[in-house]
Amino acid sequence: MNPLRHVGANGRLIVKNSVYSMLGSVLGQMVALLSSLVMGRMLGVAGLGSYTFAMTFSGLIFLFLNLGLGGIFQRNISQDMTSAGKNYANALTMRFFFSMPLSLLISIVCAFVMHRQNEIGMLLLACVYTGFTGIFSLASDGMTAVEKFNVTFVFNMLQKILCFIATFVALYFTKDILVMLIWHDIIFLILIIAELLYVNKTLCKIRLEFDLLFCKKMLRESFPTIFGAAAEYLSLKSDTLVLTLMLNESATGLYSVSSNIYIAASFVPLAMAKAATPAFNRMIAQKENTNRLVIKTFQMMLLSSLVLIAGIFVFGRFGIMLLWGDNFEGAVTSLRILSIGLLFMPFNRFLEYMLIGLNKQVLVAKCSVLGAIFNVLANILLVPTVGMNAVAVTTVITEFIVMSMEAHFYQRLQKCTIF
Predict the structure, then answer these.
(1) What's the number of CA atoms in the CB half-sphere (13 Å) around residue 374?
(2) What does the alpha-carbon distance between residue 235 and residue 43 come to, in Å, rounded to a whole number?
């Protein structure tokens, strides 16, 4: 029986899109986990920790420079297809000519400030990778906005598989992280070109332009999401930064394994949220009641989260020991603690999508910033005394706090009850 039967055509479309979104997310993260496995085996705990730190650091820099365009960009196209060309043109121009160059410059300065000059090459390549990720996801967001989930599935799987092959080959023959990152950047660049050619052919004509008035309007709407996205990322990744700076790379390597599995598991309920978001935006634009859609989506997400938590508690230790080896047994406890966050984190993302659809991204930013402040302070206070598992506990508590605030704002705006 279709759990979204009461929302008619939207429900059927969401079920169809959920399949593509879920397959892409789950299979893609499985490939990402295989990449993490290869790096763990070939680089060791400390080597994996160094790579994780570089990627986390570059991601944090770029988050402040990506201009928060993703959610606004997708909402604009979902609600008005005629704006697709203009949105693409200006968003791509800002990210390519502003975000990426500035992130490279900042990474060089930060490397000297942190006395990590020997890692400049890795940090720069990681920044390029993160910048390409932002451009790649922007093109995907446009296709998702018009519900071409099957196409985004193909591109995302290509990226994951090709990067996995590059990881294995580069590390097998060279054991050099820099070589691996160079190949990752080349793969991303090729796929970005292919993705934009597809969009240009099927969705809208893309050109690089800078319409000052249009960009000002887009930035004015997206500005709060810059801080919201940065705070959200900081909540998730401050763990890595704190562990590396306050403990050691080995702790970071162990925690990265549990974090990767946790994120992989979250993609199942998140796929449902992503599939429902375009329909939600369309219904908001047409002033339709969205309560039934939201409640049914939440019910499906909750069921999948409960199943995943049970699976992690039963099979998590076996999976880590089998795949990563005995040296990574210390990741088991953190993974079990993190799994509780599946009751909160996917719902946070869906609530964020809905609040942005209601043009209330300021509220999203407030919730995310407050959550990030709590997370960072709690990590700094607890890690030195409690150790690595402290970051898992603070992550779960942070997700609960943010979810509670966002649910309060959404229910007050829509005058409904979703829990």
Answers:
(1) 17
(2) 27
Residue of 17, 13, 32 whose CA lies nearest to 157: 32
- Tell if the pTM clears 0.85, that is, is over it: no
Q: In three state form, how does the secondary structure of 75-142 look? A: HHHHHCHHHHHHHHHHHHHHHHHHHHHHHHHHHHHHHHHCCCHHHHHHHHHHHHHHHHHHHHHHHHHH
Residue 286, φ and ψ in degrees, nearest 5 = -95, 10
Could you state, in chain order, the average pLDDT of each consecutive group of 10 residues for the chain (419 residues)?
44 59 68 78 77 77 66 72 77 77 76 69 82 80 74 85 89 86 90 86 74 74 64 66 73 79 82 77 76 84 91 87 78 89 88 83 82 86 83 90 90 78
Cα–Cα dist 48/327, whole Å: 13
156 CB burial (10 A radius; 0-12, 13-18, 19+): buried
Domain boundaries in the chain? 5-414
Cα 234 from Cα 215, distance rounded (Å): 26
Please work out, in degrees rounded to the nearest 5, the angle formed at the alpha carbon of residue 415 by the alpha carbons of 414 and 416. 90
Alpha-carbon span 253 to 332, nearest angstrom = 13
Cβ atoms 91, 69 nearer than 8 A: yes
Question: What are the C-alpha distances in Å from 92 to residues 72, 206, 279?
Answer: 13, 9, 25
In contact, 87 and 81? CB cutoff 8 Å: no
